[in-house]
Design a protein that fits this description.
This protein has about 525 residues and is mainly β. It is built from two helices and 38 strands.
Length: about 525
């Protein structure tokens, strides 16, 4: 047997049987079940289980999710049949626990044990091998259409059950918030650049990339407070020239989208004067190309202070932060309106004994208690995600920080977060992804030595601060104990009366299976935090 497989480390919280599919989740993670025989097509096979993927037998593909050592070869393709679909989990997890079939399908599974199962399960005599694991095939005879069947998992089994079918899907996966959009094909597309704003008429506008076949920026609108969403407006990346790292904001009655062009080229800005239905195009320095060069940024907030509007950005590829600002009454599409500060370096440094990797990116323009614009910015580390950094502005063209003192202890400060000031409570609020105290590892995709802190995004929390320095974590909004396929990240949000409303970039299991990893999101969802000020301690 493969030596790697002899050194498996299974998380106690992910052991089979401990985390079978739950019938009740938080409001953000409500489970949807398919239970009627009428819900299943004639050639469909549905499964239930924890962290179940749907994959296809194909050249250059891998048998297990996240395991590059499990690539299909001619032997395995001949054994299983090219184009055949199947359900499976990570190699060392149990995987599918129940199965049901349409009228023209039968239950066919593979176990890594040669055993005599109780009837009506019968061995077919077929077997195959992958990554040193020997699998044996079994079928369930006399199956009733649409009937859920428990899949056996004898004590001799050590690896994931495999379920085969013509068209396979996963039932019972949780819904994380209200779905706005999904990627066209799971694992072939990623949804990112989730941005959100509230329009002057009270409707919501959201944007992201990766949810349409052209992979460009797509707009979505809700007129019923986020209950339902529809594709909206005429925005197209090929026409309007904003492609990536976008944010949405309303200024003086107009809505703007700011980001980079294709291939990170240029900081670009488009305006809509009719609530996001039609947009200007960024063609030159007078119509929205406000800075030349290559840039990195994200869906970050803008703030108005002392007559100027401010936003945080970074250069590319070195990702050094700077800020841009313009008079609030100027033509924001005209590059001459904007002033750029200097960039600030971010060499390696120690914070309370934790080595910071040097990257400070995706910052938040916010007005400090002293009335000055600062950039509270994500700060990466090899050991923790518990710190952010404050960059200070001086005038309109200077940005600086002291690497020894201008750091902030903040849960999730090493991941993308959005900070806004609430004048009602007098508090700064943020949504972040704090680290877990547990160690997580499995034998695929480089996770054998553990998951990096920057990718631990399986918990989204609400926190507040009176001064940008002291942060209190008060409510978990989304959570799943698995960090490999669950990412509730890059939340972009706003205050609305007593509530917080916004969108989340979600990577999570769904009916089509698993994303590549937590970072590679497969959907954008809407969330609402009711009466958020009640959590002030």
């Amino acid at each position: 047997m493969n030596k790697v497989l002899q050194k498996i480390s299974i998380l106690a919280c992910l052991l089979p049987g401990v985390l079978a599919i739950s019938s009740s989740w938080s409001a953000a993670g409500k489970t949807q079940e398919a239970s009627s025989p009428a819900d299943i097509g004639k050639t469909e096979v549905q499964v239930r289980g924890r962290l179940v993927d749907v994959r296809t037998v194909q050249k250059k593909g891998t048998f297990f999710p996240q395991y590059e050592d499990s690539k299909f070869d001619d032997y395995l393709i001949s054994k299983l049949g090219e184009g055949r679909e199947y359900a499976v989990s990570l190699a060392e997890y149990r995987g599918p626990e129940q199965v049901r079939c349409g009228a023209l399908e039968h239950c066919l599974i593979a176990l890594d044990a040669d055993v005599n199962l109780e009837k009506p399960w019968v061995a077919t005599g077929e077997e195959f091998e992958i990554m040193g694991i020997h699998y044996y095939m079994y079928e369930f005879r006399k199956v009733k259409t649409g009937e859920w069947i428990d899949i056996p998992y004898p004590q001799q089994c050590r690896y994931s059950v495999v379920v085969f079918g013509t068209h396979v899907s996963v039932s019972g996966t949780p819904e994380w918030g209200t779905l706005i959009a999904k990627v066209p094909e799971i694992r072939e597309y990623s949804a990112y650049n989730q941005a959100f704003t509230i329009l002057p008429d009270g409707s919501y506008l959201a944007a992201c990339t990766g949810t349409t076949p052209d992979r460009g920026v797509a707009m979505y609108r809700s007129t019923d407070k986020g209950l339902t969403w529809e594709r909206y407006g005429n925005f197209k990346t090929s026409k309007h020239q904003v492609a990536n790292y976008c944010n949405l904001f309303v200024h003086r009655g107009s809505v703007y989208i700011c980001g980079t062009g294709p291939d990170r080229e240029g900081l670009r800005l488009c305006r809509s004067d009719d609530g996001g239905l039609t947009w200007t195009a960024a063609k030159d320095s007078r119509s929205g190309i406000i800075a030349q060069g290559k840039f990195h940024t994200a869906p970050v907030p803008v703030v108005v202070c002392n007559g100027r509007i401010w936003r945080a950005c970074e250069t590319y590829p070195d990702k050094t932060p700077f800020m841009i600002s313009a008079p609030e009454d100027s033509d924001l599409l005209d590059a001459s309106s904007w002033i750029m500060t200097n960039t600030v370096g971010h060499g390696s440094r120690l914070i309370e004994g934790n080595k910071m990797s040097g990257s400070i990116i995706e910052g938040n323009a916010v007005v400090s208690p002293e009335g000055k614009v600062v950039n509270l910015i994500r700060t990466n580390s090899t050991k923790t995600s518990a710190y952010a950094t404050i960059l200070h502005t001086e005038g309109i063209d200077s940005l600086y920080f002291d690497p020894l003192t201008d750091w902030v202890r903040m849960p999730g400060g090493g991941k993308k977060f959005t900070v806004r000031f609430d004048p009602v409570s007098g508090m700064y609020w943020a949504l972040t992804n704090p680290d877990s105290e547990q160690e997580f590892n499995h034998i695929g995709l480089g996770y054998k030595v553990g998951i990096s802190h920057s990718l631990m995004r399986n918990k989204l929390v609400l926190l507040y601060s009176p001064d940008l320095h002291q942060w209190t974590e008060v409510k978990t909004l989304m959570y799943d104990p698995d960090p490999f396929f669950h990412g509730f990240q890059y939340a972009d949000w706003m205050f609305e009366g007593e509530d917080i409303v916004g969108v989340v970039r979600v990577g999570a299991p769904e009916s089509r299976g698993l994303p590549v990893r937590q970072h590679d999101s497969n959907m954008m969802t809407f969330i609402r935090v009711d009466n958020f000020r009640q959590y002030i301690k």
